[in-house]
Write a structure and sequence with these properties.
By secondary structure, this protein is an alpha/beta fold. It contains eleven helices and eleven strands. It has helices spanning 11-26, 50-69, 86-94, 105-111, 161-176, 182-185, 195-203, 214-223, 226-230, 253-265, 270-277, and strands at 2-5, 35-41, 77-83, 100-104, 118-125, 134-139, 154-158, 188-192, 209-213, 231-236, 243-248. The strands form two sheets. Strands 1-5-11-4-2-3 form a six-stranded mixed sheet. The chain has a five-stranded mixed sheet with strand order 8-7-9-6-10, with helices on both faces. α1 (11-26) packs across α2 (50-69), α1 packs antiparallel against α10 and α2 (50-69) packs antiparallel against α11 (270-277). The model is unreliable at 4-20, 22-33, 70-74 and 272-278 (pLDDT under 50).
Length: 278
């Protein structure tokens, strides 16, 4: 499986563009249609303005089409379908309404047995390696030294996939230590839109613990080194693959590989990077 590295959350835009591109080669494998559709979970839009995503998508789409088609232009329209549940995704694949999908790894594992044609081809990550680790952070030098001492304490988590996957890990950790599930264990669990809103309450002793990815924590430390002096890692998860690009196995193999290779090089392309930064 290939890995594409994107900084500052640009992975959201990458999969928009991949779906659109993917359907371009469906035209050469018997799936020709006037409107090209690609899929994503509606939760993937958390914290992202959809109009900004569409602008970035169009710029990336033009860049990759030029790379793989020797500047030949495609004029077909494309649209995204945002799904609220996994059952709708499975039904859409079976009815050929969708051929590409962005999924987190837990959702992929939940539906892969129902969709044998679904193939993960790309891992999207903002990090230097293809996996993500989650950390449970507490106040450094405080009274909390073990997991049990967090009972009836305040927890903050991010309002994104890191928060959802981090909570799955935390609940597993609680159960393995013979402790109640998080909803019963903590006094409050606050879901915040920004990483700074998750970590800084622990820094200022307004919350007792938080969950973020190791990458997000290290990014916060780079911006404010004082955080590392006041906030400590109580537990760290194993490595997880977070985001996958999946496609129908029936698409043309050569063109699929060309598209993936082009996608994996976009992080070093100045114009593609500019489409995100603007």
């Amino acid at each position: 499986m290939n890995v594409s590295k994107w900084n500052n959350g640009i992975s959201r835009f990458l999969w928009y563009f991949l779906y659109s591109i993917g359907f371009l080669f469906l035209f050469s494998t018997g799936y020709a249609q006037d409107i090209i559709r690609f899929g994503c979970m509606s939760s993937a839009f958390s914290g992202v303005d959809k109009r900004d995503a569409q602008v970035a998508l169009k710029m990336m789409l033009d860049k990759v089409v030029a790379k793989i088609t020797d500047n030949k232009k495609y004029t077909h329209k494309f649209e995204a379908i945002a799904f609220d549940d996994l059952e709708s995704i499975v039904q859409s694949f079976h009815s050929h309404r969708i051929h590409f999908m962005n999924l987190n790894s837990f959702d992929y594992l939940a539906i892969r047995d129902q969709l044998p044609q679904l193939e993960p081809v790309l891992i999207v990550t903002p990090e230097e390696h293809p996996t993500t680790r989650f950390v449970l952070l507490v106040r450094n030098g405080g009274t909390i030294q073990n997991l049990g001492q967090l009972r009836e304490k305040k927890l903050t988590i991010p309002n994104n996939m890191d928060g959802k996957m981090g909570m799955i890990w935390l609940n597993t950790l609680l159960v393995s230590n013979d402790l109640p599930a998080s909803k019963s264990f903590f006094s409050t669990i606050k879901v915040m839109d920004k990483v700074s809103q998750v970590v800084l309450p622990v820094f200022f002793s307004q919350a007792d613990a938080c969950i973020v990815s190791r990458f997000a924590f290290e990014t916060m430390v780079e911006m404010n080194p004082q955080i590392q002096k006041q906030v400590a890692v109580l537990f760290e998860s194993d490595a997880y693959v977070k985001d996958l690009i999946c496609l129908d196995k029936n698409v043309n193999e050569n063109l699929k590989n060309d598209i993936i290779q082009s996608a994996c090089s976009l992080h070093s392309d100045p114009e593609a990077r500019q489409s995100h930064e603007n």
